[in-house]
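Dear colleagues,

For the upcoming journal club I promised to circulate an example of a predicted protein-ligand complex. I picked one with NDP because it came up in last month's discussion. The inputs are reproduced below in full, followed by the predicted structure.
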Amino acid sequence: MPNDIPPPPPVSFQQSVARMVDRALDYVKLEPGADRAIKTCNAILQVTFPLKIRGEVRTFTGWRAVHSTHRLPAKGGLRFSPSIDQDSTEALAALMTYKCAIVDIPFGGSKGGLCIDPEQYSRDEMELITRRFARELARRGFLSPATNVPAPDVGTGQREMAWILDTYKNLYPEDINYVGCVTGKPVELGGMPGRLDATGRGIHYALREFFRHPDAVAEAGLSGDLKDKRIIIQGLGNVGYHAAKLLQEEDGARIIAIIERDGALVHEAGLNVEEVHQYMQRTGGVQGFPGVEWVEPGTMALERDCDILIPAALEGVIHTGNAERIRAPLIIEAANGPITFEADEILRARGTVILPDIYANAGGVVVSYFEWIRNLSHMRFGRLERRLDEMRGQHIVSALELMSGEQSPDWLRASLLRGADELDLVRSGLDDAMRVAFQEIERMRQTHDRAMDYRTAAYAVAISRISGASLDLGAY
Ligand SMILES: NC(=O)C1=CN([C@@H]2O[C@H](COP(=O)(O)OP(=O)(O)OC[C@H]3O[C@@H](n4cnc5c(N)ncnc54)[C@H](OP(=O)(O)O)[C@@H]3O)[C@@H](O)[C@H]2O)C=CC1
Ligand SMILES: O=C(O)CCC(=O)C(=O)O
Protein backbone atom coordinates (compact mmCIF):
# COMPACT_ATOMS: atom_id res chain seq x y z
CA MET A 1 0.00 0.00 0.00
CA PRO A 2 1.47 3.45 -0.89
CA ASN A 3 2.61 5.46 2.09
CA ASP A 4 0.21 8.36 1.67
CA ILE A 5 -3.02 6.39 1.73
CA PRO A 6 -4.13 5.41 5.21
CA PRO A 7 -5.98 2.11 5.38
CA PRO A 8 -9.68 2.49 6.14
CA PRO A 9 -9.93 3.05 9.89
CA PRO A 10 -11.07 -0.15 11.65
CA VAL A 11 -12.74 2.06 14.23
CA SER A 12 -14.19 5.54 13.81
CA PHE A 13 -12.56 8.65 15.32
CA GLN A 14 -15.18 8.64 18.06
CA GLN A 15 -14.60 4.98 18.87
CA SER A 16 -10.87 5.59 18.84
CA VAL A 17 -11.26 8.26 21.55
CA ALA A 18 -13.64 6.02 23.52
CA ARG A 19 -11.11 3.18 23.53
CA MET A 20 -8.40 5.47 24.79
CA VAL A 21 -10.74 6.50 27.60
CA ASP A 22 -11.48 2.82 28.34
CA ARG A 23 -7.78 2.18 28.90
CA ALA A 24 -7.72 4.88 31.58
CA LEU A 25 -10.94 3.67 33.19
CA ASP A 26 -9.03 0.60 34.40
CA TYR A 27 -7.16 2.93 36.77
CA VAL A 28 -10.03 5.12 38.04
CA LYS A 29 -12.68 3.90 40.48
CA LEU A 30 -16.14 5.06 39.38
CA GLU A 31 -19.58 4.05 40.46
CA PRO A 32 -21.29 1.57 38.13
CA GLY A 33 -22.47 3.17 34.91
CA ALA A 34 -20.62 6.45 35.45
CA ASP A 35 -18.10 5.53 32.74
CA ARG A 36 -20.85 5.49 30.14
CA ALA A 37 -22.24 8.80 31.42
CA ILE A 38 -18.81 10.39 31.04
CA LYS A 39 -18.12 8.97 27.58
CA THR A 40 -21.47 9.68 25.95
CA CYS A 41 -22.09 12.84 23.95
CA ASN A 42 -24.78 14.90 25.68
CA ALA A 43 -26.33 16.53 22.62
CA ILE A 44 -25.71 16.90 18.91
CA LEU A 45 -27.33 19.45 16.65
CA GLN A 46 -27.35 18.99 12.89
CA VAL A 47 -28.48 21.87 10.71
CA THR A 48 -28.94 22.02 6.97
CA PHE A 49 -29.70 25.40 5.46
CA PRO A 50 -30.09 26.74 1.94
CA LEU A 51 -28.43 29.88 0.59
CA LYS A 52 -28.50 31.44 -2.85
CA ILE A 53 -24.94 31.69 -4.08
CA ARG A 54 -23.97 32.79 -7.60
CA GLY A 55 -27.60 32.48 -8.71
CA GLU A 56 -27.92 28.91 -7.46
CA VAL A 57 -29.51 27.53 -4.27
CA ARG A 58 -26.92 25.55 -2.35
CA THR A 59 -27.45 23.64 0.87
CA PHE A 60 -24.91 23.44 3.68
CA THR A 61 -24.78 20.98 6.55
CA GLY A 62 -23.16 21.63 9.91
CA TRP A 63 -23.03 20.20 13.43
CA ARG A 64 -22.42 21.36 16.96
CA ALA A 65 -21.81 18.58 19.46
CA VAL A 66 -22.01 19.15 23.21
CA HIS A 67 -20.16 16.32 24.83
CA SER A 68 -20.44 17.47 28.45
CA THR A 69 -22.24 20.08 30.50
CA HIS A 70 -20.87 19.27 33.96
CA ARG A 71 -19.41 22.75 33.61
CA LEU A 72 -20.82 25.57 31.51
CA PRO A 73 -20.34 26.98 29.01
CA ALA A 74 -19.41 24.04 26.80
CA LYS A 75 -16.32 25.13 24.88
CA GLY A 76 -14.60 24.17 21.67
CA GLY A 77 -13.63 25.17 18.18
CA LEU A 78 -15.58 25.42 14.96
CA ARG A 79 -14.13 23.64 11.95
CA PHE A 80 -14.89 24.47 8.31
CA SER A 81 -13.78 21.53 6.23
CA PRO A 82 -15.13 19.23 3.53
CA SER A 83 -14.12 16.21 5.60
CA ILE A 84 -16.01 17.10 8.80
CA ASP A 85 -18.96 14.87 9.69
CA GLN A 86 -21.03 14.03 12.74
CA ASP A 87 -18.67 11.33 14.00
CA SER A 88 -15.59 13.54 13.94
CA THR A 89 -17.53 16.47 15.47
CA GLU A 90 -18.56 14.26 18.38
CA ALA A 91 -15.04 12.86 18.77
CA LEU A 92 -13.54 16.36 18.79
CA ALA A 93 -16.16 17.50 21.34
CA ALA A 94 -15.21 14.60 23.61
CA LEU A 95 -11.53 15.58 23.39
CA MET A 96 -12.55 19.09 24.53
CA THR A 97 -14.19 17.71 27.69
CA TYR A 98 -11.04 15.84 28.75
CA LYS A 99 -8.74 18.68 27.68
CA CYS A 100 -10.56 21.30 29.76
CA ALA A 101 -10.48 18.98 32.77
CA ILE A 102 -6.74 18.33 32.45
CA VAL A 103 -5.82 22.00 32.43
CA ASP A 104 -8.43 22.61 35.10
CA ILE A 105 -10.63 25.16 33.40
CA PRO A 106 -14.33 25.24 34.22
CA PHE A 107 -15.79 24.36 30.83
CA GLY A 108 -17.70 21.46 29.36
CA GLY A 109 -16.64 20.10 25.98
CA SER A 110 -18.11 21.02 22.61
CA LYS A 111 -17.07 21.21 18.96
CA GLY A 112 -18.70 22.29 15.75
CA GLY A 113 -18.19 21.75 12.09
CA LEU A 114 -19.51 22.95 8.78
CA CYS A 115 -19.02 20.70 5.77
CA ILE A 116 -17.52 23.18 3.32
CA ASP A 117 -14.30 23.86 1.44
CA PRO A 118 -13.66 27.54 2.25
CA GLU A 119 -11.24 27.76 -0.71
CA GLN A 120 -14.20 27.45 -3.09
CA TYR A 121 -15.94 30.60 -1.83
CA SER A 122 -15.22 34.32 -1.90
CA ARG A 123 -14.85 36.33 1.30
CA ASP A 124 -18.37 37.76 0.96
CA GLU A 125 -19.84 34.31 0.37
CA MET A 126 -18.04 32.94 3.42
CA GLU A 127 -19.43 35.81 5.48
CA LEU A 128 -22.98 35.03 4.34
CA ILE A 129 -22.55 31.31 5.09
CA THR A 130 -20.88 31.85 8.48
CA ARG A 131 -23.50 34.34 9.64
CA ARG A 132 -26.30 31.99 8.63
CA PHE A 133 -24.64 29.05 10.43
CA ALA A 134 -24.21 31.24 13.53
CA ARG A 135 -27.92 32.15 13.44
CA GLU A 136 -28.88 28.50 13.20
CA LEU A 137 -26.69 27.68 16.22
CA ALA A 138 -27.83 30.64 18.32
CA ARG A 139 -31.55 30.13 17.70
CA ARG A 140 -31.27 26.56 18.99
CA GLY A 141 -29.26 27.42 22.09
CA PHE A 142 -25.91 26.21 20.71
CA LEU A 143 -24.23 29.63 20.80
CA SER A 144 -24.17 31.95 23.80
CA PRO A 145 -21.66 33.24 26.37
CA ALA A 146 -23.47 31.24 29.07
CA THR A 147 -23.91 27.88 27.38
CA ASN A 148 -21.79 27.33 24.27
CA VAL A 149 -18.77 29.31 23.14
CA PRO A 150 -17.01 28.46 19.85
CA ALA A 151 -13.42 29.34 18.89
CA PRO A 152 -11.22 28.93 15.80
CA ASP A 153 -10.18 25.54 14.47
CA VAL A 154 -9.17 24.25 11.03
CA GLY A 155 -10.61 26.51 8.33
CA THR A 156 -11.74 29.27 10.73
CA GLY A 157 -9.95 32.13 12.45
CA GLN A 158 -10.44 35.62 13.86
CA ARG A 159 -12.45 36.71 10.83
CA GLU A 160 -15.12 34.03 11.26
CA MET A 161 -15.28 34.66 15.02
CA ALA A 162 -15.92 38.37 14.35
CA TRP A 163 -18.84 37.53 12.02
CA ILE A 164 -20.30 35.14 14.57
CA LEU A 165 -19.97 37.72 17.34
CA ASP A 166 -21.73 40.35 15.26
CA THR A 167 -24.53 37.95 14.32
CA TYR A 168 -25.08 37.02 17.97
CA LYS A 169 -25.02 40.67 19.05
CA ASN A 170 -27.68 41.58 16.48
CA LEU A 171 -29.88 38.69 17.61
CA TYR A 172 -29.48 39.33 21.36
CA PRO A 173 -28.50 42.99 21.90
CA GLU A 174 -29.84 42.81 25.46
CA ASP A 175 -27.22 40.22 26.44
CA ILE A 176 -24.67 42.40 28.21
CA ASN A 177 -22.05 39.65 27.85
CA TYR A 178 -22.51 39.17 24.11
CA VAL A 179 -18.77 39.70 23.43
CA GLY A 180 -18.09 36.44 25.28
CA CYS A 181 -20.15 34.34 22.83
CA VAL A 182 -16.95 33.41 20.94
CA THR A 183 -13.24 33.45 21.72
CA GLY A 184 -10.33 33.81 19.34
CA LYS A 185 -11.84 37.00 17.93
CA PRO A 186 -9.79 40.03 16.85
CA VAL A 187 -8.26 41.95 19.77
CA GLU A 188 -10.08 45.12 18.67
CA LEU A 189 -13.41 43.31 19.21
CA GLY A 190 -12.62 42.00 22.69
CA GLY A 191 -10.20 39.23 21.71
CA MET A 192 -7.24 38.34 23.86
CA PRO A 193 -3.69 39.37 22.97
CA GLY A 194 -1.83 36.06 22.72
CA ARG A 195 -4.78 33.85 21.67
CA LEU A 196 -3.57 33.61 18.06
CA ASP A 197 -0.32 31.87 18.96
CA ALA A 198 -1.61 30.26 22.19
CA THR A 199 -1.92 26.67 20.99
CA GLY A 200 1.52 26.68 19.36
CA ARG A 201 3.00 28.40 22.39
CA GLY A 202 1.33 25.81 24.60
CA ILE A 203 3.13 23.08 22.62
CA HIS A 204 6.37 24.94 23.24
CA TYR A 205 5.70 25.27 26.98
CA ALA A 206 4.68 21.59 27.20
CA LEU A 207 7.95 20.50 25.60
CA ARG A 208 9.96 22.81 27.84
CA GLU A 209 8.26 21.28 30.88
CA PHE A 210 8.90 17.75 29.59
CA PHE A 211 12.62 18.56 29.22
CA ARG A 212 12.70 19.82 32.82
CA HIS A 213 12.08 16.20 33.89
CA PRO A 214 15.27 14.21 33.25
CA ASP A 215 13.54 10.85 33.99
CA ALA A 216 10.91 11.56 31.39
CA VAL A 217 13.53 12.65 28.86
CA ALA A 218 15.56 9.50 29.50
CA GLU A 219 12.46 7.33 29.00
CA ALA A 220 12.27 8.73 25.49
CA GLY A 221 15.93 7.84 24.97
CA LEU A 222 16.83 11.53 24.76
CA SER A 223 19.01 13.79 26.86
CA GLY A 224 19.69 17.48 27.46
CA ASP A 225 17.24 20.20 26.50
CA LEU A 226 15.53 21.39 23.34
CA LYS A 227 18.66 22.93 21.84
CA ASP A 228 19.60 21.20 18.58
CA LYS A 229 16.81 18.64 18.92
CA ARG A 230 15.83 17.48 15.43
CA ILE A 231 12.14 18.13 14.90
CA ILE A 232 9.72 17.12 12.14
CA ILE A 233 6.44 19.02 11.97
CA GLN A 234 3.34 18.31 9.91
CA GLY A 235 1.10 21.29 9.13
CA LEU A 236 2.41 24.85 9.17
CA GLY A 237 -1.01 26.38 9.93
CA ASN A 238 -2.00 28.35 12.99
CA VAL A 239 -0.79 25.77 15.51
CA GLY A 240 2.19 24.30 13.65
CA TYR A 241 3.67 27.61 12.52
CA HIS A 242 3.80 29.16 15.99
CA ALA A 243 5.03 25.96 17.65
CA ALA A 244 7.83 25.48 15.11
CA LYS A 245 8.86 29.14 15.13
CA LEU A 246 9.05 29.35 18.92
CA LEU A 247 10.96 26.08 19.23
CA GLN A 248 13.46 27.28 16.64
CA GLU A 249 13.85 30.90 17.69
CA GLU A 250 13.61 30.62 21.48
CA ASP A 251 15.19 27.21 22.14
CA GLY A 252 17.46 26.60 19.18
CA ALA A 253 15.69 23.41 18.07
CA ARG A 254 16.34 22.31 14.48
CA ILE A 255 13.24 21.94 12.29
CA ILE A 256 14.57 19.31 9.89
CA ALA A 257 11.32 18.68 7.99
CA ILE A 258 8.06 20.51 7.35
CA ILE A 259 5.24 18.42 5.92
CA GLU A 260 2.44 20.24 4.16
CA ARG A 261 -0.49 19.16 2.00
CA ASP A 262 1.52 19.26 -1.26
CA GLY A 263 4.66 17.52 0.03
CA ALA A 264 7.51 17.86 2.51
CA LEU A 265 10.64 19.99 2.76
CA VAL A 266 13.59 18.24 4.37
CA HIS A 267 16.86 19.88 5.42
CA GLU A 268 19.10 18.32 8.07
CA ALA A 269 20.80 21.64 8.85
CA GLY A 270 17.40 23.08 9.76
CA LEU A 271 14.71 24.95 7.82
CA ASN A 272 14.01 28.60 8.53
CA VAL A 273 10.38 28.43 9.67
CA GLU A 274 9.62 32.09 9.00
CA GLU A 275 11.00 31.91 5.46
CA VAL A 276 9.01 28.75 4.70
CA HIS A 277 5.87 30.33 6.14
CA GLN A 278 6.28 33.45 4.02
CA TYR A 279 6.89 31.29 0.96
CA MET A 280 3.63 29.42 1.72
CA GLN A 281 1.73 32.69 2.03
CA ARG A 282 2.99 33.74 -1.40
CA THR A 283 2.58 30.46 -3.28
CA GLY A 284 -0.09 28.51 -1.38
CA GLY A 285 2.21 25.55 -0.74
CA VAL A 286 5.77 24.55 0.03
CA GLN A 287 6.76 22.97 -3.28
CA GLY A 288 9.61 24.82 -4.96
CA PHE A 289 11.12 26.23 -1.75
CA PRO A 290 14.75 26.60 -2.78
CA GLY A 291 17.85 24.76 -1.58
CA VAL A 292 16.26 21.86 0.28
CA GLU A 293 15.16 18.26 -0.38
CA TRP A 294 11.61 17.75 -1.67
CA VAL A 295 9.65 14.65 -0.60
CA GLU A 296 6.38 13.56 -2.14
CA PRO A 297 4.05 12.33 -0.81
CA GLY A 298 4.85 14.44 2.21
CA THR A 299 3.56 11.85 4.67
CA MET A 300 6.67 9.77 3.95
CA ALA A 301 8.61 12.34 5.95
CA LEU A 302 6.65 11.35 9.07
CA GLU A 303 8.74 8.17 9.03
CA ARG A 304 12.15 9.84 8.94
CA ASP A 305 14.64 9.73 11.76
CA CYS A 306 14.26 12.64 14.21
CA ASP A 307 14.11 13.40 17.94
CA ILE A 308 10.61 14.87 18.10
CA LEU A 309 7.66 14.49 15.75
CA ILE A 310 4.88 17.10 15.89
CA PRO A 311 1.76 16.23 13.90
CA ALA A 312 -0.05 19.60 13.73
CA ALA A 313 -2.49 19.14 10.86
CA LEU A 314 -5.27 16.59 11.01
CA GLU A 315 -6.54 13.48 12.76
CA GLY A 316 -5.61 9.92 11.85
CA VAL A 317 -2.30 10.65 10.09
CA ILE A 318 -0.47 7.97 12.08
CA HIS A 319 -2.36 4.75 11.53
CA THR A 320 -1.80 1.00 11.26
CA GLY A 321 -0.33 1.55 7.77
CA ASN A 322 2.65 3.60 8.98
CA ALA A 323 2.90 3.27 12.79
CA GLU A 324 5.53 0.52 12.63
CA ARG A 325 7.77 2.78 10.56
CA ILE A 326 7.56 5.91 12.75
CA ARG A 327 11.06 6.41 14.14
CA ALA A 328 10.60 9.43 16.40
CA PRO A 329 11.15 8.46 20.06
CA LEU A 330 8.97 11.39 21.19
CA ILE A 331 5.71 12.54 19.60
CA ILE A 332 3.78 15.57 20.77
CA GLU A 333 0.24 15.73 19.39
CA ALA A 334 -0.41 19.31 18.36
CA ALA A 335 -3.37 18.24 16.22
CA ASN A 336 -6.44 16.60 17.70
CA GLY A 337 -6.43 12.84 17.27
CA PRO A 338 -3.43 12.50 14.91
CA ILE A 339 -2.75 8.94 16.11
CA THR A 340 -5.48 6.30 15.79
CA PHE A 341 -6.15 3.97 18.68
CA GLU A 342 -4.54 0.99 16.91
CA ALA A 343 -1.46 3.03 15.95
CA ASP A 344 -1.21 4.23 19.52
CA GLU A 345 -1.13 0.59 20.70
CA ILE A 346 1.67 -0.18 18.23
CA LEU A 347 3.72 2.84 19.26
CA ARG A 348 3.20 2.18 22.97
CA ALA A 349 4.40 -1.39 22.56
CA ARG A 350 7.54 -0.01 20.91
CA GLY A 351 8.15 2.43 23.76
CA THR A 352 7.49 5.63 21.83
CA VAL A 353 6.73 8.44 24.27
CA ILE A 354 3.59 10.35 23.27
CA LEU A 355 2.44 13.62 24.82
CA PRO A 356 -1.28 13.42 24.02
CA ASP A 357 -3.48 16.01 22.32
CA ILE A 358 -5.76 16.41 25.34
CA TYR A 359 -2.80 17.86 27.22
CA ALA A 360 -0.42 19.12 24.55
CA ASN A 361 -2.71 21.35 22.50
CA ALA A 362 -4.70 22.73 25.45
CA GLY A 363 -2.97 26.11 25.21
CA GLY A 364 -5.65 27.43 22.88
CA VAL A 365 -8.54 26.75 25.20
CA VAL A 366 -6.56 27.98 28.22
CA VAL A 367 -6.18 31.41 26.61
CA SER A 368 -9.78 31.23 25.37
CA TYR A 369 -10.73 30.88 29.03
CA PHE A 370 -8.77 34.04 29.85
CA GLU A 371 -10.51 35.80 26.97
CA TRP A 372 -13.97 34.72 28.14
CA ILE A 373 -13.23 35.89 31.70
CA ARG A 374 -11.97 39.22 30.33
CA ASN A 375 -15.18 39.58 28.31
CA LEU A 376 -17.40 38.84 31.32
CA SER A 377 -15.46 41.26 33.51
CA HIS A 378 -15.60 43.94 30.79
CA MET A 379 -12.08 45.02 31.62
CA ARG A 380 -8.62 44.08 30.40
CA PHE A 381 -6.32 42.19 32.75
CA GLY A 382 -3.86 44.34 34.69
CA ARG A 383 -5.72 47.59 34.08
CA LEU A 384 -6.09 48.38 37.78
CA GLU A 385 -2.70 47.33 39.10
CA ARG A 386 -0.14 47.93 36.35
CA ARG A 387 0.95 51.44 37.32
CA LEU A 388 0.86 50.51 41.00
CA ASP A 389 3.26 47.64 40.25
CA GLU A 390 5.54 50.03 38.41
CA MET A 391 5.52 52.43 41.33
CA ARG A 392 6.38 49.59 43.73
CA GLY A 393 9.22 48.58 41.39
CA GLN A 394 10.51 52.16 41.49
CA HIS A 395 10.49 52.07 45.31
CA ILE A 396 12.41 48.76 45.34
CA VAL A 397 15.05 50.16 42.96
CA SER A 398 15.39 53.32 45.06
CA ALA A 399 15.69 51.27 48.27
CA LEU A 400 18.34 48.96 46.73
CA GLU A 401 20.37 51.92 45.50
CA LEU A 402 20.06 53.72 48.81
CA MET A 403 21.27 50.68 50.77
CA SER A 404 24.08 49.67 48.42
CA GLY A 405 25.15 53.15 47.42
CA GLU A 406 25.40 51.88 43.85
CA GLN A 407 23.25 52.25 40.78
CA SER A 408 21.22 49.15 39.88
CA PRO A 409 22.23 47.38 36.66
CA ASP A 410 20.09 48.46 33.68
CA TRP A 411 18.51 45.02 33.23
CA LEU A 412 17.34 44.90 36.87
CA ARG A 413 16.05 48.46 36.79
CA ALA A 414 14.17 47.83 33.52
CA SER A 415 12.61 44.64 34.81
CA LEU A 416 11.53 46.13 38.14
CA LEU A 417 10.17 49.33 36.62
CA ARG A 418 7.93 47.59 34.12
CA GLY A 419 4.43 46.59 35.26
CA ALA A 420 3.14 43.44 33.54
CA ASP A 421 0.99 44.12 30.50
CA GLU A 422 -1.86 41.88 29.39
CA LEU A 423 0.31 39.76 27.11
CA ASP A 424 2.79 39.10 29.96
CA LEU A 425 -0.09 37.98 32.16
CA VAL A 426 -1.58 35.72 29.49
CA ARG A 427 1.74 34.03 28.79
CA SER A 428 2.44 33.58 32.47
CA GLY A 429 -1.01 32.00 32.95
CA LEU A 430 -0.54 29.75 29.92
CA ASP A 431 2.91 28.62 31.05
CA ASP A 432 1.55 27.85 34.51
CA ALA A 433 -1.38 25.85 33.12
CA MET A 434 0.90 23.73 30.91
CA ARG A 435 3.45 23.13 33.68
CA VAL A 436 0.94 22.23 36.38
CA ALA A 437 -0.99 19.91 34.06
CA PHE A 438 2.19 18.06 33.08
CA GLN A 439 3.15 17.68 36.73
CA GLU A 440 -0.28 16.26 37.55
CA ILE A 441 -0.07 13.78 34.69
CA GLU A 442 3.42 12.79 35.88
CA ARG A 443 2.08 12.38 39.42
CA MET A 444 -0.63 10.05 38.14
CA ARG A 445 2.07 8.02 36.37
CA GLN A 446 4.20 7.90 39.54
CA THR A 447 1.31 6.44 41.52
CA HIS A 448 1.37 3.55 39.03
CA ASP A 449 5.16 3.13 39.04
CA ARG A 450 5.41 4.99 35.73
CA ALA A 451 3.98 1.92 33.99
CA MET A 452 1.26 4.14 32.56
CA ASP A 453 1.79 6.03 29.31
CA TYR A 454 1.13 9.79 29.25
CA ARG A 455 -2.14 9.46 27.37
CA THR A 456 -3.65 7.00 29.81
CA ALA A 457 -2.44 9.09 32.74
CA ALA A 458 -3.89 12.28 31.21
CA TYR A 459 -7.26 10.60 30.68
CA ALA A 460 -7.16 9.25 34.23
CA VAL A 461 -6.58 12.77 35.61
CA ALA A 462 -9.43 14.12 33.47
CA ILE A 463 -11.90 11.36 34.31
CA SER A 464 -11.28 11.74 38.04
CA ARG A 465 -12.00 15.46 37.82
CA ILE A 466 -15.10 15.09 35.63
CA SER A 467 -16.59 12.37 37.79
CA GLY A 468 -15.80 14.39 40.93
CA ALA A 469 -17.56 17.45 39.51
CA SER A 470 -20.54 15.40 38.36
CA LEU A 471 -20.90 13.77 41.78
CA ASP A 472 -20.68 17.12 43.55
CA LEU A 473 -23.39 18.45 41.26
CA GLY A 474 -25.56 15.40 41.84
CA ALA A 475 -25.65 14.98 38.07
CA TYR A 476 -26.31 11.25 38.48
N1 LIG B 1 -6.43 26.58 16.27
C1 LIG B 1 -6.39 26.19 17.54
O1 LIG B 1 -6.32 27.01 18.46
C2 LIG B 1 -6.36 24.74 17.89
C3 LIG B 1 -6.22 23.77 16.93
N2 LIG B 1 -6.07 22.46 17.30
C4 LIG B 1 -5.88 21.41 16.31
O2 LIG B 1 -4.66 21.61 15.61
C5 LIG B 1 -4.78 21.11 14.28
C6 LIG B 1 -4.43 22.21 13.30
O3 LIG B 1 -5.31 23.30 13.53
P1 LIG B 1 -4.99 24.76 12.98
O4 LIG B 1 -3.52 24.99 12.97
O5 LIG B 1 -5.88 25.68 13.70
O6 LIG B 1 -5.52 24.64 11.49
P2 LIG B 1 -4.97 25.38 10.19
O7 LIG B 1 -6.01 25.18 9.16
O8 LIG B 1 -4.54 26.76 10.53
O9 LIG B 1 -3.64 24.56 9.85
C7 LIG B 1 -3.62 23.26 9.41
C8 LIG B 1 -2.39 23.13 8.52
O10 LIG B 1 -2.22 21.78 8.13
C9 LIG B 1 -2.14 21.74 6.71
N3 LIG B 1 -2.67 20.48 6.20
C10 LIG B 1 -3.95 20.18 5.92
N4 LIG B 1 -4.03 18.92 5.46
C11 LIG B 1 -2.79 18.45 5.46
C12 LIG B 1 -2.21 17.21 5.08
N5 LIG B 1 -2.97 16.23 4.63
N6 LIG B 1 -0.88 17.07 5.20
C13 LIG B 1 -0.12 18.06 5.68
N7 LIG B 1 -0.60 19.26 6.03
C14 LIG B 1 -1.90 19.44 5.93
C15 LIG B 1 -2.95 22.90 6.24
O11 LIG B 1 -2.66 23.23 4.91
P3 LIG B 1 -3.79 23.95 4.01
O12 LIG B 1 -3.83 25.35 4.51
O13 LIG B 1 -3.27 23.79 2.63
O14 LIG B 1 -5.08 23.22 4.24
C16 LIG B 1 -2.52 23.95 7.24
O15 LIG B 1 -1.26 24.49 6.92
C17 LIG B 1 -6.21 20.57 14.18
O16 LIG B 1 -6.22 19.20 14.52
C18 LIG B 1 -6.95 21.37 15.24
O17 LIG B 1 -8.13 20.71 15.69
C19 LIG B 1 -6.04 22.10 18.61
C20 LIG B 1 -6.18 23.02 19.59
C21 LIG B 1 -6.47 24.41 19.31
O1 LIG C 1 -10.20 27.76 22.27
C1 LIG C 1 -11.14 27.00 22.33
O2 LIG C 1 -12.18 27.24 22.92
C2 LIG C 1 -11.12 25.64 21.66
C3 LIG C 1 -9.87 25.22 21.01
C4 LIG C 1 -10.10 23.91 20.33
O3 LIG C 1 -10.98 23.78 19.51
C5 LIG C 1 -9.28 22.77 20.68
O4 LIG C 1 -8.56 22.82 21.68
O5 LIG C 1 -9.35 21.75 19.97
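Two points we might discuss: The domain at 41-189 is CATH 3.40.50.10860 (Rossmann fold). The chain has a mean pLDDT of 96.

See you all on Thursday,
B. R.
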